[in-house]
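User: Please fill in residues for this 183-position structure.
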């Protein structure tokens, strides 16, 4: 830009975000307010002291902003899919408690996604969902719980006490063991 001219940086809606006077060596530094960190398209012009404006140059700000965490995340009743909402165009990854990716999907233009899980999750597992945008910024995780449609294994090591008053054994943690007579 011409030394002494004024450089103006504007948002896509025409709002001036910053300006600077060009130094003798042709360089300038303008501070933007607010900062532009989400891939915004900016217009830059230089206007000399006589009021002549250059043709606008378009520049795109770096995207360093992570998407918001996915919302409305739900596992289907059969444990095969996870649905929800996230930033359009981002990729949602569904992971198990150990961090293994079970499925992923690209978010549609309307912000919705459906990810197919492999394997299906049907035992009350806690799952996490994150959204990653095209600039590789990843959201915080949203969590959801898979349905528990898997019957527990039969109790094992069943023993009746010598006095017949108690029964002991092993079963799935948190499950309820019912003891019934033969009738």
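Assistant: Residues filled in for all 183 positions:
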């Amino acid at each position: 830009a011409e030394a002494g001219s004024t450089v103006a940086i504007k948002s896509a809606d025409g709002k001036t975000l910053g300006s600077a006077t060009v130094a003798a060596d042709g360089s300038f530094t303008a501070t933007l307010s607010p900062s532009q960190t989400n891939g915004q398209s900016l217009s830059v012009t230089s206007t000399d002291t006589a009021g002549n404006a250059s043709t606008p140059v378009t520049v795109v700000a770096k995207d360093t902003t992570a998407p918001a965490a996915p919302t409305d995340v739900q596992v289907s009743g059969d444990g095969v899919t996870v649905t929800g909402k996230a930033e359009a165009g981002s990729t949602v990854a569904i992971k198990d408690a150990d961090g293994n990716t079970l499925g992923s999907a690209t978010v549609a233009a309307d912000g919705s996604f459906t990810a197919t899980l492999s394997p299906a999750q049907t035992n009350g597992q806690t799952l996490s969902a994150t959204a990653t945008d095209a600039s590789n910024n990843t959201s915080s995780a949203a969590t959801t719980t898979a349905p528990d449609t898997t019957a527990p294994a039969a109790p094992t090591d069943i023993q009746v006490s010598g006095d017949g008053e108690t029964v002991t054994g092993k079963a799935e943690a948190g499950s309820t063991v019912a003891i019934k007579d033969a009738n």
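For context: The radius of gyration is 30 Å.
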